[in-house]
Design a protein that fits this description.
Elements: E1 4-11, E2 15-23, E3 28-37, E4 40-43, E5 51-54, H1 56-73, E6 79-86, E7 91-94, E8 104-105, H2 113-132, H3 141-149, H4 155-158, E9 161-164, H5 165-174, E10 179-180, H6 181-184, E11 190-191, E12 196-197, H7 199-205, E13 215-216, E14 221-224, H8 227-233, E15 240-242, H9 248-254, E16 263-268, E17 271-278, H10 285-290, E18 292-296, E19 302-309, H11 312-323, H12 330-339, H13 360-370, H14 379-405, E20 411-415, H15 422-432, E21 436-438, H16 443-455, H17 462-472, E22 476-478
Parallel strand pairs: 1-6, 10-13, 16-20, 20-21
Antiparallel strand pairs: 1-2, 2-3, 4-5, 5-8, 7-9, 11-12, 14-15, 16-17, 17-19, 18-19, 21-22
Length: 483
């Protein structure tokens, strides 16, 4: 059969890419068409500290570059869809005529903190968790919207629709306003089980619930490429734009090599998401206490996981070492760590002092000294301490997920950049005591495209998506040591 092509647009919080995914009926092959960087920028807004916002126009122009490449490289008769995924919680407000009402605030902006403190008291932490299942964090959309409701510029009075990040760019491609199920489930404004927005939360913060769009399910068609978008991209008018699993971690889990109902998952990158899929959300107090979140997946599944600091710690160490003239690649750092002895103690990777940019090697020494741990004395020992501590956190979280859900987890599928680390995979298998199946580092784009293939009736369901994912990138298996 002729290969079907899907364009997967994957937006991370510091970079994005446009990928051509070609499907032959059994496997999906990925080819990067365009990669770009972007960042939140500080905008003076009359306040004391300004506001961190996304440069949505730069991201849009970068998407167009990738789509123009697609239009020239791919036979458009074989192009079956375009879909966009991104990080969660952030949004842009547009007016009735589609104009931007205000800059799109970035989740790291601290303006939400006072509203987080107020609302968790007024509504109650337990009720917020019981009704949404979301981990309580100041970055969540509810608290951002509360900040907008109190803004002296009154952006909500001028807004007709709230568009989360992928929905903004889908709107510019199609002219259709929508929200999407997996991304809506990150907002603390959405009941993913009943599939509706929680309007009384909007009433409580003074936000009009009418700005929240109708919610598409992964695999729904949003609309076709409009005439103006066709002029900008070279793509045919009417090219389908699909609602994929538009939360990037939801897309990554679609592309994970999960092969049994007892297989957990680990999305391993700057952040680590570790847990398991459930048929229904787990919104009990033990989940709240353990720091687990419930987010929607594909096929009616719930992703129940802990969100932990991940390779960020090692990335910050590398940055500091390189600034000092010690130019080490990640593969070199991993080799030095592998040559170093196993750490006698580990540290809590979720220690708040490690969550911000800093002299990370010095911060680790200070943390060790504070807890009476012998501090690392070399780059290899520092990296080994980080790897051992990450593996210990994965074991803790996986055991907590199993205990809370009563589910046996006897395998762990790993995707993301961390899946490439042989050392970390070995240590994770040893710490958790279960085999690790290391899948694709590009699982987000893979999962994005597989959901589009479901829409095109080329893949039947989520289980077949996983079969295709494993065939496309056969997982490397790391068995735990038995000694």
């Amino acid at each position: 059969m002729a290969r079907a092509h899907f364009i997967a647009i994957d937006l991370g919080a510091s970079s994005g890419r446009v990928v051509d995914a070609a499907f032959d009926g059994e496997t999906m092959s990925l080819r990067e068409l365009h990669r770009f960087t972007h960042r939140a920028v500080l905008i003076p807004d009359g306040s004391e500290h300004g506001r961190y916002c996304w440069d949505v126009l730069h991201i849009w122009e970068s998407i167009l570059v990738g789509l123009r490449t697609a239009s020239s490289d791919i036979n458009t008769e074989d192009l079956k869809g375009i879909a966009i995924d991104s990080w969660g919680v952030d949004y842009t407000l547009i007016s009735e005529t589609g104009q931007l009402v205000a800059p799109s605030s970035a989740y790291r902006d601290p303006r939400t903190h006072e509203y987080f403190e107020r609302l968790t008291k007024d509504i109650g932490r337990e009720e917020l968790y019981q009704r949404t299942g979301n981990l309580l964090m100041p970055i969540n959309t509810l608290f951002q919207l509360a900040a907008d409701a109190s803004d002296h510029d009154r952006p909500l009075e001028r807004a007709d629709s709230l568009l989360m990040t992928p929905a903004l760019y889908s709107y510019w491609l199609t002219g259709v306003v929508h929200a999407e199920h997996t991304l809506a489930s990150t907002t603390q404004l959405y009941d993913a089980l009943e599939r509706h927005w929680i309007s009384d939360f909007c009433d409580m913060i003074g936000a009009p619930a009418g700005i929240l769009p109708s919610v598409a399910i992964p695999g729904d068609e949003i609309g076709g490429v409009s005439s103006i978008a066709a002029e900008l991209t070279g793509l045919p008018v009417g090219t389908p734009v699909i609602a994929t699993a538009s939360h990037d971690s939801a897309a990554a889990i679609v592309g994970a090599p999960i092969d049994t109902p007892t297989c957990g998952y680990l999305s391993s990158g700057t952040w680590s998401l570790i847990g398991c899929e459930l048929d229904t959300p787990h919104r009990k107090p033990d989940g709240l206490a353990a720091g687990f979140t419930n987010e929607a997946g594909v096929g009616g599944r719930t992703r129940f996981h802990a969100n932990s600091t991940g390779l960020w710690i090692l990335q910050e160490c590398q940055r500091i070492w390189n600034e000092r003239g010690e130019d080490y690649s990640f593969s070199q750092i991993e080799r030095l760590a592998a040559e170093s002895p196993r750490s006698s103690h580990t540290f809590d990777v979720n220690e708040p002092t490690l969550a911000v940019p800093c002299d990370m090697p010095a911060a680790l020494v200070e943390l060790c000294e504070h807890h009476g741990i012998t501090p690392p004395r070399s780059i290899g020992e520092t990296a080994r301490l980080v790897y051992d501590s990450l593996a210990a956190e994965y074991a803790r979280a996986l055991d907590a997920a199993s205990q809370m859900t009563g589910r046996t987890i006897d395998r762990l599928a790993v995707v993301g950049g961390g899946s490439k680390s042989t050392l970390l995979n070995h240590l994770t298998a040893d710490a958790t005591g279960v085999p690790v199946l290391a899948g694709s580092p590009e699982a987000t784009s893979l999962g994005n495209a597989l959901v589009q293939a479901m829409h095109a009736d080329l893949v039947a369901d989520l289980d077949q998506c996983r079969v295709c994912a494993r065939a496309s990138v056969p997982p490397r298996v790391f068995e735990p040591l038995t000694t």
